[in-house]
Amino acid sequence: MTGPASPAPFDPGELHPETALVAKIPIGYARKHLLLPCRTPSGEIVLLSGKPEAREAIDEMRFLAGPARVVPAPSEEVLSRIDAAYERAHSPEHEIVEGLPGEWDLDPTTAIEETRDLLESPDEAPVIRFVHSVLFRAIRERSSDIHFEPYEKELVVRNRVDGILYPMITAPRKWHAPAVSRVKVMAGLDIAERRLPQDGRIKIRLGGREIDIRVSTVPTSFGERAVLRLLDRGNVLFGLSDMGLDPADLATFERFLSRSSGILLVTGPTGSGKTTTLYAALRHLDSGTKNIITIEDPVEYQFQGIGQIQVNPKIQLTFANGLRSILRQDPDIIMVGEIRDAETAEIAIQASLTGHLVLSTLHTNDSASAVTRLVDMGIEPFLVASSLSGVVAQRLVRRLCPDCKTPYAPTAVDARSVGLPSPPDTPFHRPGGCGKCLQTGYLGRVALFEILPADETIRSMILTRADADGIRALAVSRGMRTILAAGAEKVVAGVTSVEEVLRVTQEE
């Protein structure tokens, strides 16, 4: 006589969450007891448990799931799977538009004032579901910004992914006011004030990920336009080695940072990654033995051990005034978010000449133009020449999706467009489109760098008030790699496409 057949063996990695049961169990309960109902490849329902000893919770779960056996797993793995399962269960595609009623009877001020975790937030009103679904989808699709744009007959929501804006939702015009009011409540803004621009912040969590959101609203002819900048703390690149610098450029950059004084400038247009580069430099310098103070507008990421000051023009806390105060704080290293005027530039340069290492950004197209910009601001050439350590110009290009990029033989025109004298033997690649990259052909971004060291020859040209073209030509003759040349290397390596490199270099 034989006993009952034992269950077929399986790899725990083959378990898939049972969505019908996940929908019935609050995520808070699943997290607390580290329990997730799953289905095996053979169709059997089991309970993945990080606390096999929690018999009472397991019995409660079996009340819904039936007589399921328990599969133990490390608590960290179970928690990660719970978050992933509830993210999928809260997929917004079916509820962003289709799930919302045609007519809303709601008061936007009833929305909860604090969002701890989007997956645990109560769906008390359609406006809450709408805004939370927009946030969820934007975070899931790696968006850096969300735009709520009102027009005469519709509300358009667009997401910026890898630097490019994509339409996300087109909704009836009447949805605009409740949605923007909900965003303003979450950000602590005055929902009754619709005539003046406002700025605020939201802090949320999504499945254990902490997201900071900067909110900006401005009045337009069709209503308030709101832009949300998403800052995922888990995606910050802290190391210089993570920035995409080649070994020679990395060594040059680290040499700039090893000095005890001087000014290092990072230049490029808005959205080119300048702040990320400066933060990476600060993390490299933060040894615990130096006093590092920054003044920024705004403070995008907060770092332990670094003093960060937020610019506030309403109380006359400008870059210049804040910089003066920083100098009385015995700093070793100062980071100025941006040099916008001659007063800030002059104080920063004086600080670099008196034994401080100063890091800052400047809006110019290339590294050589940064030098002439300082002189044009009214800074004496001898001060620029004696204080400047180097200039780093950068751009961000989208990476080709590794799963769907397609090779092709480059033509002579392709090669010349990125500065190559002839087509290389290796193929170029063009974007394809797949589910992983949301059919865009690109996944993530990588930086292109142009580094100009201020050596004695460059300093002598600064003293003679040479123009940017002359400084650039000299630097290239001495081995400086331009942004276009850096882009060509990435094209040859199959990292990005010709079109991407031309898109960021032809902006000039």
Largest sheet: 7 strands, mixed
Rg from alpha-carbon coordinates: 27 Å
Distance between the termini: 84 Å
Q: Please tally the β strands and state the result.
A: 19
Mean pLDDT: 85
Helix content: 25-40%
| Beta-strand residue fraction | 25-35%
Tally of alpha and pi helices: 17
* CA-based shape: globular
Strand arrangement across the biggest beta sheet: 13-12-14-15-11-16-19
Which structural class best describes the helix and strand composition?
A: alpha/beta
Ranges with pLDDT <50 over ≥5 residues?
1-5, 92-116
Compose a concise summary of this entry:
By secondary structure, the chain is α/β, with parallel strands linked by helices. The chain is 32% helix and 25% strand.
Q: What do these coordinates show?
A:
The protein has 508 residues and is α/β, with parallel strands linked by helices. Helix content is 32%, strand content 25%. The strands form 4 sheets. A 7-stranded mixed sheet has the order 13-12-14-15-11-16-19, sandwiched between helices. A hairpin with a 2-residue loop joins strand 9 and strand 10 (223-232). Helix 5 packs across helix 6 and helix 10 (342-353) crosses helix 12 (381-387). The termini are far apart. Mean pLDDT is 85; it is low at 1-5 and 92-116.
